[in-house]
Amino acid sequence: MVALAWVEELGDGDEWWGGAGYGGPAADGAAADGAGEAQGRALRLVPRAGGRVSARQARTFLWRRTLVVGALALVAALAWGATARLVPAAGAAPSATHTYVARPGDTIWAIAVRFSTGGDPWPLVDRLEAQIGGGTLQPGQVLTVP
């Protein structure tokens, strides 16, 4: 384990950790004799004395990390799914209308499935039914399909 501690750089290139229990010379009294004058102070990560991690702490860390990574993955998946639905709708150009002449054996559903672009054919079925007046489709009947 590491901890934040004030570290002073001594004139002879050594460092002195500013606190007991952090594994530095202050813990064993080596810097107490005044050897070397302080050049500057900085807050650094230093090894903590007895820096062992218990099994419970390790499990807790792993569990928390797993939850955070899972939450981030879920948010990313939801954002990707939302943009996948919005981008085609925003980038779609107004579609041109087509004229279709009904053939023998055609149904409104078959025509709607053929001309719908991978989406739900029900709105097109409703439009086609409105064009023919709710009756049956007759061969030779002309339909305007968006």
Short note summarizing the structure:
It contains 4 helices and 5 strands, in the order E-E-H-E-H-E-H-H-E.
Question: Can you offer a commentary on this structure?
Answer:
The protein has 146 residues and is of the alpha+beta class. 40% of the residues lie in helices and 21% in strands. It has helices at 25-28, 55-91, 108-115, 122-131, and strands at residues 2-10, 15-17, 38-47, 98-101, 142-145. The strands form two sheets. A three-stranded antiparallel sheet has the order 2-1-3. It has a two-stranded antiparallel ribbon with strand order 4-5. A hairpin with a 4-residue loop joins strand 1 and strand 2 (15-17).
Number of helices: 4
The CATH architecture term of the largest domain is Roll
Helix-strand string: EEHEHEHHE
Largest sheet: 3 strands, antiparallel
Helicity range of the residues? Answer: 40-55%
CATH class of the largest domain: Alpha Beta
Query: Which structural class best describes the helix and strand composition?
Result: alpha+beta
